[in-house]
Specification:
Blueprint: H1 5-19, E1 23-31, E2 34-41, E3 44-51, E4 58-61, H2 74-83, E5 87-93, E6 99-107, E7 113-121, E8 128-132, E9 138-141, H3 174-183, H4 190-196, H5 202-215, H6 218-229, E10 236-239, E11 245-249, E12 261-263, H7 267-316, H8 319-331, E13 342-347, E14 353-358, H9 365-408, H10 413-425, E15 447-450, E16 456-459, H11 463-473, E17 479-483, E18 491-493, H12 501-513, E19 523-529, E20 533-534, E21 545-546, E22 550-554, H13 558-563, E23 565-566
Antiparallel strand pairs: 1-2, 2-3, 3-4, 5-6, 6-7, 7-8, 8-9, 10-11, 10-12, 13-14, 15-16, 15-23, 16-18, 17-18, 17-19, 19-22, 20-21
Length: about 575
């Protein structure tokens, strides 16, 4: 979510407590729209990241080390000139707007004490970082906005700073909230609240609506704002169904599932985690795009082969008719006039019904009969080969789909590289020849969950890992699970003997979750002992056969998976 006014108020409050009184030691600009202030306060050093990036505008303490350009950008040099050694007097939010002012006491080149303000506007694509003098005039901005960019508001050196144009919204004070309720007779919606009050996002407005319905009108609205008024922030990360960061909240939202909210120590920790995870996901998506395209092409090729094989099967279905025609011609050669284009005979294979047989007038009746036998024998041979080709193609398609499934759930570069190496070993990617010896790829660990009964459940992340998990790690009398007849992870319950039903169902749920059938209902999940799972000679990674299985029919329960303890 973009930072709304309520959340930004919590961030400003937190940063003011941590940094007020500190001195700016270093200033860096690793990105064109991002600066880092290194601040010393109370014998500790803090790195304040301020980003005006359209997609990730934010400010928080960071631990991430970024590489700086060899030549500092002009805006960085300007900030160093005016702010280096400066003392941070305060960090405050402008009303409930998405604007934060950092007031800094510094000294001019003449040694005179002066007050500067670093104004941070965190407003999506309109985000900016602006340096003001003591009179409120703009010294410079990280993004200059002239008349050619905007006719409404310019941000240029020497101009008097003016806040972004008002959207005629109300400050969410108690007085304004009461007036809002008195003036509105129609149904109050989340959209109406977010459009009426400054700093309340659509997500926050939906939470307010929920509280209004459950706590009684205005009381529900005020209960939400009370946390902001009293500065009782408890930042929380909101997770999606895959346990990945999906949003961040200034405090617990009653309208959202409790098990998907993870409280964090402070706003900086939360924002660092959220944007790091998002950046990682974007990088992984970009890095895996090439492999995804390759797998899509290979799967499409298999599907085209399926179509060709289906066509050939149709042709093979005619082979018996060629044999019958050959035999009937042989038995009725005396009826065939040389040079005739067809002949009608009694078909003793079909109650002596009349059957018209086409002939090649250029050859003898005996040769026509032999030609039909040749067609029959050719299709008979082809049908035997075709069965093997169809099975091989389906196996290859299933294998490629399993690779694609693994690729969709990767979380780091090591897992991506494992899949790349597997594709190389399978011959789908050419090995790069280099004089330098490439470092061996270290295997990643499988997913590890603890069931409600305290039993360990392991889940393979890719085909190579599935093989290692089933054939090396698991013990013969432990339980193995896999979705039936579709790509998916191998799942191992690390317990011998009788398994509690709850653990078995949770493991089956995990097998479905990490499979192609995740979104389907009543999907069959097979389970058996590991000793009944075998790998045929020459089979591709992850491909096994098994017997003595039992079957559960499952519909994926994401809430149950989120409730499980995940060790790694």
């Amino acid at each position: 979510m973009p930072l709304d006014g309520i959340t930004l108020g919590g961030i400003a409050f937190e940063l003011n407590r941590l940094l007020a009184g500190g001195r700016i030691d270093k200033i860096q600009q690793p990105e064109k729209d991002e600066i880092i202030l290194i601040i010393k306060n109370n014998s500790r050093q803090h790195k304040l990241l301020i980003s005006a990036n359209a997609g990730s505008a934010r400010m928080h303490i960071t631990q991430i080390i970024k590489e700086n350009p060899e030549t500092p950008p002009n805006f960085c040099m300007l900030l160093r000139k005016h702010l280096s050694g400066g003392k941070i007097l305060s960090i405050s939010q402008l009303g409930n707007e998405r604007i934060v002012n950092i007031t800094i006491q510094s000294y001019s080149e003449l040694g005179e004490q002066t007050i500067k303000t670093l104004t941070i506007e965190l407003m999506g694509k309109h985000s900016n970082i602006i340096l003001l003098n003591s009179q409120g005039f703009i010294i410079d901005a990280i993004k200059r906005v002239d008349i050619t960019v905007s006719s409404v508001r310019q941000v240029m050196p020497h101009d008097l700073y003016a806040a972004p144009p008002s959207q005629n919204k109300l400050e969410p004070s108690m007085e304004n909230i009461r007036r809002f309720f008195l003036d509105r007779k129609e149904n109050i919606t989340a959209r109406l609240i977010s459009e009426s009050f400054i700093g309340i996002s659509r997500t926050a407005a939906e939470e307010i609506i929920f509280r209004m319905k459950n706590q009684g009108g205005i009381e529900g609205f005020s209960s939400y704002m009370q946390n902001a008024y009293q500065k009782t922030y408890r930042p929380a990360m909101l997770l999606n169904g895959q346990n990945q960061p999906a949003d961040f909240l200034p405090f617990q939202y009653l309208s959202l599932a409790t098990e998907l909210q993870r409280e964090r120590a402070d706003f900086s920790t939360m924002l660092e985690e959220f944007y790091s995870a998002r950046d990682m996901a974007q990088h992984m998506k970009s890095r895996s795009r090439e492999l995804n395209m390759l797998l899509d092409k290979l799967i499409e090729k298999c599907e085209r082969k399926d179509g060709l094989y289906a066509q050939k099967l149709m042709e093979c279905s005619q082979m018996e008719s060629y044999r019958i025609k050959g035999e009937l011609l042989t038995a009725n050669l005396y009826l065939v006039v040389r040079g005739a284009k067809k002949v009608t005979v009694s078909n003793y294979y079909d109650d002596n019904k009349s059957l018209e047989i086409e002939l090649d007038e250029r050859i003898s009746p005996q040769s026509n009969a032999q030609q039909y036998f040749k067609k029959y024998n050719k299709l008979k041979t082809a049908s035997k080969l075709l069965a093997g080709q169809i099975a091989q193609n389906r196996e290859e398609k299933s294998y490629l789909e399993s690779l694609k499934l693994s690729l969709e759930s990767i979380t780091n570069y090591a897992e991506l590289e494992e899949i790349r190496q597997e594709l190389m070993q399978a011959g789908y990617i050419k090995r790069q020849t280099s004089r330098k010896k490439s470092k061996p790829v270290s295997s990643t660990a499988p997913h590890c969950y603890i069931s409600s009964d305290g039993i360990e459940i392991l889940v393979g992340k890719n085909n190579r890992q599935n093989d290692a998990l089933t054939l090396k790690t698991a013990q013969p009398n432990e339980t193995w699970l896999h979705v039936k007849d579709m790509p998916g992870s191998h799942v191992i319950i690390r317990k011998t003997g009788e398994i509690p039903e709850s653990t078995l169902m949770q493991a089956a749920n995990l097998a479905l979750y990490y499979s192609k059938g995740r979104t389907s209902q009543n999907v069959p999940v097979d389970y058996t002992l590991v000793r009944y799972v075998k790998k045929p000679g020459g089979a591709k990674p992850g491909m096994v056969i098994y017997q003595n299985m039992k079957t559960l029919y499952m519909t994926c329960d994401i809430d149950e998976i989120n409730a499980l303890t995940k060790v790694k």
